Amino acid sequence: MDTGPYGDGKKLHKHGRGPNGDGRRVLGNMVLILGICVILATVSPEPLRAAAVSNFLIIASFGVAISALLHRQKPFVPYLTRWDQAVVLYLLGTLVATVVDPAVVESYLQSSGQSSALPASENLAL
Fold first, then answer.
1. Contact 100, 54 (CB under 8 A)
2. Helix (H, G, I), strand (E, B), or coil: what is residue 3?
């Protein structure tokens, strides 16, 4: 049978996934999205680039997850799907977020005259 054995009803070899496609399409799309996120982050100021890459990757992961929902892909199959792509993009985004220094971001925002993205503890009123 040419159709996918996991319920999506599409031909595996035609879409570049499954046993014959090796998930090349999913990996190619993921590299493309990663490159676009990095390129978009280069327009942000130097101290904010890591935070921008992190945010773009996390937003892209949600977009890919919505795409997986709309294409009705099953999340737990033995070949690569958009769900796997969304998980990897989200994990990369959170990994990049670990290198962001909030003090550097806060000092940059204060020096540039922009309002703070982080709440100041003395301004909190309960």
1. yes
2. strand
Strand partners of residue 42: none
Q: CA 8, CA 21: separation in Å to the nearest integer?
A: 16
Give whole-number Cα distances, 44 to 30, 41, 73, in Å. 22, 6, 35
Separation between Cα atoms, residue 51 and residue 102, nearest integer Å: 9
Instruction: Give the position of tokens 């890919």.
Output: 64
User: How far is 92 from 79, CA to CA, in rounded Å?
Assistant: 20
d(CA 11, CA 118): 49
3-state secondary structure of 11: strand
Instruction: Kindly tell me if the per-residue pLDDT of 7 is higher than 50.
Output: yes
Per-residue pLDDT of 15-60, as tens digits, reads 555 555 567 888 899 999 999 999 999 999 988 999 999 999 999 9
